[in-house]
Amino acid sequence: MIKITTVLLLTLMMSAFASGQANKSKRTVSVKQERIDSITQSFLKTTEELSYNIPVIDENTLKENTDMTVYPTLHAGRDAFKSVVSFQFGSMRFQQKGLPTNYSSVTVNGLPMMDIASGTGLWNNWWGLNDVFKITESSNGLQQNNFAVSAIGESSNLDIRASKQRAQTIFGYGFSNRAYNHRMQFTNSSAVNKKGWAYTFSFGGNYTTMPAIPGTFSNGINYFFGVDKKMGEHLISFSLFESITHKAKQAAILKESEKILGDALYNPAWGYQNHSVRNANISSQSLPVVILTHEYRFSNQNFLLTSIAASKGNRNTTGLDWYHAPDPRPDYYRYLPSYQTDPFLKEQVMLIMQQDVYKRQINWDGMYEVNNISKENILNADGIVGNIVSGKRARYILENRMANITRLNFASSYHGRWNESALFDIGITVSFQKVHYYKTINDLLGADFYVNWNQFAESNLPTNPNSIQNDLNIPNRILKKGDAFGYDYSILHNRATTWTHLMVPMKRFGFYVDGELSITQFWRIGNTRNGLFADNSFGKSVVNNFLNSALRLGINYSINGKQSIFIASAMANKPPSSDNFYISPRTRDATQGDLINENIFSTELGWLLRSAKLKIHSGLYYIVTKNAMDVLSFYHDAYNSFVNYAVRGIGQTHFGIEFGMDARLSNNVSAQFAFAGGNHYFNSRQTAIVTADNTAAEIERVLIYAKNYQSLNSPQSAYSLGFNYRTATRWLMNLNVNFFDRQFLGWNPIRRTAEAIYPIDPNSEKGKQLLQIEKMPAQYLINFFLTHSFSIGRKNNQQWVWSISINNLLNKQDLLVNGYEQLRFDFDNRDPQKFPPKYLHGMGINFLISTSYRF
Amino acid sequence: MIYQSFFQQRIFFGLLFMIQFYSCERQYDAPPMDIETAFAPDMTIKELRAKHVMGKFEQISDARIIVGVVVADDASDNFYKSIVVQDTTGGITIRMDGIKLAANYPIGRKIAISLKGLWLGDYGKLIQLGAGVDNSDPANPALVSIPQTLFDQTIKKGEMMKQLIPLKLSTGQLNNNYQSMYIRLDSVEFIPADTSKCYADFANKLSLNRTLKSCSGASILLRTSGYADFADLKTPSGNGYITGIYSVFGSTKQFLIRDTSDIHLYQNRCK
After folding, report:
1. Which of A278, A352, A445 sits opposite B149 (nearest CB)?
2. pTM, entire model
3. Do residues B74 and B133 share a domain?
């Protein structure tokens, strides 16, 4: 009862420019072209903020689609709360409303640009192309949008059509000590000529010479080419773009490593090879996208927008693999001082880690040496009886974890007006996605060959001599550089969605209704026959079908010209992502079994004030999700294998407050204040089916005591106070102090099972240690920004803009961005310190100096 | 790196044209094989063994070096967290706190061990070399294995020897001087009760002893770990020679094979 009242109460406050939109009569999906003079601080910052974060290795998941990067959305900075979230909280990977990216949507020219498997936006497809890819419309949470299928989180629409770009030439350069050092971009857009043609092209790249985090780099090249042809009321647009990236990653570290080395930015992912730095975890992407769009205007108010997109390319991450050789990762727990019980040896181990770089970084030379003496004969090689292959069999290799991606997308939507009194939008989208996952040999590290065997299955050899074969179709396959091995499968998705949106703007009231219906299908195709799962690894799996719907309602009320309130509620269900439905897609097509949809209920209310001197955005949200699924895979010592916990029944509650204020104190000075405070927790117990990758049998079913645990590991409280100083001579200075608190480590559900705890009393000291989630310390971060622009040229029609942004002004070296409990758990002694949490540190003082010249 | 310098020179010029180059994989150099060949022992294994008093622990304070050849490793898991090293004078078991030791210390590899700071001890009179003494159970102090992180500073890896020649001995000749040495025993066979039996209990991971008898009548135990990858195989019934490592447990003489290629029992049993 109390809950219901709370919900009802909550259902009274919030919004950004939603109420403004309600009365807006112009219906376009076009770029809001702003005068160059009004280039805001946020606009300038966008270019680099997208690439602020260095990619990170996530050891806790084997999923292919995981992208830990939080892409800050790019806004014109008109909303007091949203601009702070993007530019001040972004570096701490703050998640608005506690919602991960798969609750948000992004469309380009009306096409949903999302990975169907994971539900995350494909922002990295146009990474760096910020001159063209500007968000033209966005809505926050349940606020109404009229361009696409609604999302519970953020909905963004980008219009990249050439004729919608401002006709100008931009030459930009940035110098930074962040993820990269240099970045350059050249963009040229024409106006629509007499014959109806317009074009835009943009190309650029970024490059690292002196990485902020040792061993990392971020290099990339991007290009965009777009042509539009206007023929009467028809507008036909073509765009081709790609962002090719090459990034070396940072690994999260143990407190112990940080303490031994006195270095919060220690990165164990790299090592020296022949005295040059080599990172083992490099990700790269090459994924060109082509989009064709057609718009037909029946009248100023009514138009039909149709787009089709195709993309084909690949993503790859490298990693080490090893067979009958010691773990090459330098921070493996057995190599650390804490593993020693003898105090003298502890000291010795610590000293050598401090003194010898080969002991604290990856020892590439050592791996070459091991491979060089590893002579072996492989009998019946390549499945040919009597075929013996002899030579240096690799014990260490560098592998490519490949994902070949094919996407086809179609969307068509009609936007119209009904009798002057109602606006409506209706659309369909059809998407197809195929991702082919497999491994190939990147580098044999000096050896002659590798063999397509699964070492974790060796314990099954006496009972099943085929068990070690990764592919029974070609047993004992000899692998050379470039050969595919290990797993090899595809996940295919089809999705068709129809959506509609109706808005009735009245004098003071405006209300809207959104509905959505979708069908999702996915299935797996195995390209190899795994020795352990001979019957369900090869070929096409059963097709899983899901029918989903969403409904959204909202009311805006304009109290007076300056104030408005907003109430909205949504109910939706969505299918589990294929990543979470297949228990171990790398080896077999076993699934969680039941086709269970995730249910989401969300309600928001807000109050908005917009006057010349004061802008306030305040809102409350309450979101409940139920029946979500997840799969966790990790190395289990007792089974000597990767074990999969297929978790279901995950429910979360998120409620909280969002407040943003922008006050003009004088002609030159304004103050900003923003606060995001939330409570994000699991609202139910979860169940898990435990299976191992080295046996076909289900090991056990366990209950995860998750209820009321914090479900979010980004800060649940975030504050920002800032001052802007602006002069008539176009100087702008901005100083923000940000404070973050109530951030908890990413949790390990395995620790919250009876199997993990028993026989330890949950109320004992050790029991509490095992069960409680560590809270990270409260932290603050000070950021500074300065920009100045000049008009030059005879007609003052050329702009030259300079800016400098300095983050972490006080050079706090121990800034913790994130941390998580390792999934690997000490089932023998139940010691939480045996596999302690890992932490990710942010950079000390860091800057970006950028300049752009526009004409 | 090749890739970076390549990039550096041209980054600002014609980025677009570089896309095709860019997507090329960079070629990493392979490091030279830096295998030490100049090993200069200043102590023999026999001299080292002589420093040990059974049941006691001795720390070696001198900066001495022994050089030997690995004669048993953990490739088949019959030896666990240890390797056996011998020179011409004797052999010794090195306790090492790691698995997959054979990747770095395979049979036939010449190694040099810096003794300074290491400890001598024995387990059931089998002399071993370790890195410390664990006194957590005062009644049964135990040798601490060498930590994995310290392997490289303790043990220098050398060249691979072409062929190892076992010392031919009769079962009766075996005594503590031959501990941890690579030995060949001729004209032996499993006693009738131990033929066609598993070498060890693989399912329950239990070590087992099988009795070998020579035609002259002397016998010795063949001990195999339940973790050995050949534990599940059956002992042959023929007569012939076996090679392996001589070991003891107290006054019991034991023989350990590295894998079943050490067993050459193809002849008729003795009469």
Report:
1. A352
2. 0.88
3. yes
